[in-house]
Amino acid sequence: MFKILVVDDEAKIREVIKTYAEFEGHTVEEASDGLEAIDKCKEQDFDVIVMDIMMPRLDGFSSYKEIRKHKDIPVLMLSARGEEYDKLFGFEIGIDDYVVKPFSPKELMARLNVIVKRHQKTIENETLEFEGLRIDLDGKVVYVDEERVEMTPKEYDLLVFLATNENIALSRDKLLSKVWGYDFYGDDRTVDTHIKMLRNSIKDYRKFIVTVRGTGYKFETRE
């Protein structure tokens, strides 16, 4: 169970999220605008933030950038708009996920569970291990059957992002925005080329990197 900060100027939205979250056993704090959210994050620790983009006094993007200066808390952004610019800008500043209103509360909670699990795994594990594939996060080194593997920085970053999003299908656009960055002017071929290189680098453990037809890729460890 985890602690959630819900930030939205619409009381009904906060109430719906709180109801579903508390039903699952989570603790919820509320804020009605970005400035209040910053103050609450200074006073308390949270496992995840659900934050609306368009709010009075201070918008969600500006608020989260300020929070990130002090604490590393993952965030899911809410928006009444589904514009690509909002999504790309959000990923540029480090948001973890993005949901367009109106949304399914059940889907929202499922996404929050994934975000928190992924964040905790990244923090708590200095090493990720999948059979004979070992990723040393501190040393930024990868081993295959105890043999160190030489790979490019982008191969490493791609592997870590895939592995910390274990069993989650990731689109090529999301991989581009999270691994290469918002200002990278590449296309799907960039991702596909690096996936091919990465698969060659990790040899037999290429079996973990699965192509999701029509979407992208995922690091699949469950049978």
Task: Please describe the structure with a list of short key phrases separated by commas or semicolons.
223 residues; alpha/beta; Rossmann fold; Arc Repressor Mutant, subunit A; 2 domains; five-stranded parallel β-sheet; four-stranded antiparallel β-sheet; elongated
What does this structure look like?
Helix 3 links the parallel strand 3 (48-52) and strand 4. This protein folds into 2 domains: 3-116, Response regulator (Rossmann fold, 3-Layer(aba) Sandwich), CATH 3.40.50; 125-219, Winged helix-like DNA-binding domain superfamily/Winged helix DNA-binding domain (Arc Repressor Mutant, subunit A, Orthogonal Bundle), CATH 1.10.10. The protein is elongated and about 55 Å long. The mean pLDDT is 88. 43% of the residues lie in helices and 22% in strands. The two termini are 26 Å apart. It has 223 residues and is of the alpha/beta class. The strands form 3 sheets. Strands 2-1-3-4-5 form a 5-stranded parallel beta sheet, with helices on both faces.
Give the total of beta strands.
12
What is the average of the pLDDT values?
88
CATH architecture of the largest domain: 3-Layer(aba) Sandwich
Q: What name goes with the CATH superfamily of the largest domain?
A: Response regulator
Task: Itemize the secondary structure elements and their pairings.
Blueprint lengths: L2 E5 L3 H13 L3 E5 L2 H10 L4 E5 L7 H9 L6 E5 L4 H9 L4 E4 L4 H20 L2 E4 L2 E4 L4 E4 L2 E3 L3 H12 L5 E2 H9 L7 H14 L7 E4 L3 E4 L4
Parallel strand pairs: 1-2, 1-3, 3-4, 4-5
Antiparallel strand pairs: 6-7, 7-8, 8-9, 10-12, 11-12
Helix pairs in contact: 1-5, 2-3, 6-7, 6-8, 7-8
